Recover the amino acids of this structure.
């Protein structure tokens, strides 16, 4: 056994020991010889065999794929730096992206850009914002200025004061959002991420705790959303959801204008951007920009 394999096993064991079963929605009853998760629990949540995961911790000469390592990292809640270390120890090239979130296909990114002033974004089963166009980026605040881990629609709705102020029907919207997240049945590591999000929101938001305790369930559907944009005023959108990869829960959400006022605001945003491009100046923020 070489040093990297030995360190890989020790690293996984220490990361496993620090994860509370309750944190992932697992029963904590019964006697546990060591703190944290059991090997079989990690394997089950990561969608892999117990024997295979055991070999990883034992430092056996096996060759896990990038997808297997990503699943394990998700279950164990590894940071970006810890994920990179895990891949290095396993001798697997690090993912191209510099975050724990999966890359979005180039074709989908092109589609987002072609939607112009129509706000649109891609999110996963745990409500992380994986990609968005400028129209959505500037809808309330500049999303690019937020830490990557806070670019999450659930997190923004319950913890960000600017987003709460920008949602005039915040009470009803957050009720639907919590019913949606309870209905999610994402497998493996995605479920672990959803559970971590629920735990974090419960610690941060009294409103979330109140809604979660109601046990309401509702699948996400097309709906009308209203925003109070700092730049464009009140905007109403019909939000159309399209699942991109059902197995991974990734979905594209497109905001279509629901009334004439919103349509005019989007047209004005497009005209402002086009004029700025013709004059060689900097483009104005998209609809909803600051």
């Amino acid at each position: 056994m070489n040093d990297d394999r030995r360190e890989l096993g020790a690293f996984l064991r220490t990361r496993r020991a620090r994860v509370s079963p309750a944190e992932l929605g697992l029963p904590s009853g019964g006697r546990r010889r060591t703190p944290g998760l059991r090997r079989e629990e990690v394997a089950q949540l990561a969608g892999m065999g117990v024997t295979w995961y055991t070999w990883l911790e034992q430092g056996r000469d096996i060759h896990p794929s990038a997808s297997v390592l990503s699943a394990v990292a998700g279950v164990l809640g590894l940071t970006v730096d810890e994920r990179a270390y895990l891949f290095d120890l396993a001798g697997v090239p690090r993912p191209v992206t510099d975050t724990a979130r999966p890359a979005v296909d180039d074709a989908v990114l092109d589609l987002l850009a072609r939607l112009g002033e129509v706000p649109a974004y891609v999110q996963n089963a745990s409500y992380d914002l994986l990609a968005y166009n400028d129209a959505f980026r500037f809808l309330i605040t500049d999303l690019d200025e937020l830490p990557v881990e806070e670019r999450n629609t659930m997190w923004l709705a319950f913890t960000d004061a600017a987003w709460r102020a920008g949602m005039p029907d915040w009470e009803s919207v957050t009720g639907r959002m919590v019913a949606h997240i309870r209905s999610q049945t994402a497998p493996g590591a995605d479920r672990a991420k959803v559970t971590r999000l629920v735990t974090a929101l419960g610690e941060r938001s009294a409103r979330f705790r109140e809604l979660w305790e109601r046990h309401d369930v509702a699948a996400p559907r097309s709906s009308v959303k209203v925003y109070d944009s700092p730049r464009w005023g009140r905007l109403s959108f019909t939000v159309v959801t399209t699942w991109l990869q059902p197995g991974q829960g990734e979905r594209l959400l497109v905001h279509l204008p629901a009334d004439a006022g919103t349509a005019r605001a989007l047209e004005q945003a497009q005209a402002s951007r086009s004029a700025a491009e013709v004059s060689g100046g900097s483009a104005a923020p998209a609809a909803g920009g600051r």
